[in-house]
From TrEMBL:
UniProt similarity note: Belongs to the short-chain dehydrogenases/reductases (SDR) family.
CDD domains per UniProt: 17beta-HSD-like_SDR_c
Domain of life: Bacteria
Gene3D superfamilies cross-referenced by the UniProt entry: NAD(P)-binding Rossmann-like Domain
UniProt keyword annotation of Oxidoreductase present: yes
Protein name: SDR family NAD(P)-dependent oxidoreductase
InterPro entries cross-referenced by the UniProt entry: NAD(P)-bd_dom_sf (IPR036291), SDR_fam (IPR002347), SDR_oxidoreductase (IPR051911)
Gene source species: Micromonospora musae
The entry's keywords: Oxidoreductase
Pfam families in UniProt: adh_short
Length: 275
């Protein structure tokens, strides 16, 4: 029996994952900004659920929550799933400074604080799996999603570095990259005020999204369990289909652009022997 710590457990992916984890008999520490939303889980699964009201931007509260989980279940946290977050939509110029700051605080720093909080215990036990919910938008950026996707790019960099740092302690890190799922994330997130100036950018986003088929959020529960059961899990995994084709095009374009402008790179080097 494993012990999981899942943030953002009350809705969207988190609600499906909580059910999957508990259905198979594991222990779950489920967090949400309002613990009352987790009552159906505690009513159904009893002592195997620890419902925690948590704002992931509060570092002291995160540390206290991890301590509470370790004391409640014993044996420590086996799997951390950083799912809490929201999706701010808006062109870079449309987003307010306050919205941009809040987006980074919740999505990136919230993930950072929970990750740091579980690491001491995982290192002592020399085992653990940290799953970070990123996005296809953590690997590619789309118009009117830049601020949201910047948080995912930050999570990508932090997590890739972390994976190399903690591999010596048999701790695994996996970046989950969902593509398109109807989870209600956008509807439950703050949005920038749209302006006619960037109507063309929104239209470009809609055109891009037309190439994806929405997946079934409930099906991702089994995918999460499969990742947890994998002895050597991947650093990155896409949830959903059609993402590979998009990424092949994206990365080929990046390399082609860098090669085209390699003469500027060599100019900047300044050392004739390295040109």
């Amino acid at each position: 029996m494993s012990t999981w710590f899942l943030t953002g457990a009350s809705r969207g992916f988190g609600a499906h994952w909580a059910e999957a984890i508990l259905e198979r008999g594991d222990n779950l520490a489920a967090t949400a900004r309002d613990a009352a939303t987790l009552k159906p889980l505690t009513d159904r699964y009893g002592d195997r659920v620890l419902a925690i009201q948590l704002d992931v931007t509060d570092r002291a509260a995160v540390d206290a929550a991890v301590d509470e989980v370790e004391q409640r279940f014993g044996g420590g946290i086996d799997v951390l799933v950083n799912n809490a977050g929201h999706m701010l939509m808006g062109a870079v110029e449309e987003v307010t400074p306050e919205q941009a700051r809040a987006q980074m605080d919740v999505n990136y720093f919230g993930t950072l604080w929970t990750t740091r909080a579980v690491l001491p215990g995982m290192r002592r036990r020399r085992r653990g799996h940290i799953m970070q919910v990123s996005s296809l938008g953590g690997l590619i950026a789309y118009p009117t999603m830049g601020i949201y996707q910047a948080t995912k790019w930050a999570i990508e960099a932090m997590s890739q570095a972390l994976a190399a740092e903690v591999a010596a302690y048999d701790i695994h890190v996996t970046l989950i990259e969902p593509i398109m799922f109807p989870t209600g994330l956008a509807a439950n997130s703050p949005q920038a005020t749209s302006t006619p100036t960037y109507t063309h950018a929104r239209e470009a986003l809609y055109a891009e999204s037309a190439g994806f088929t929405a997946g079934d959020p409930a099906a991702t529960g089994q995918a999460i369990l499969a990742l947890a059961d994998t002895p050597n899990p991947p650093l990155r995994v896409l949830f959903g289909t059609n993402g590979l084709d998009v990424l092949r095009t994206e990365y080929a374009g990046r390399l082609a652009g860098l090669e085209k402008w390699d003469h500027i790179s060599r100019l900047a080097q300044g050392n004739p022997d390295q040109r």
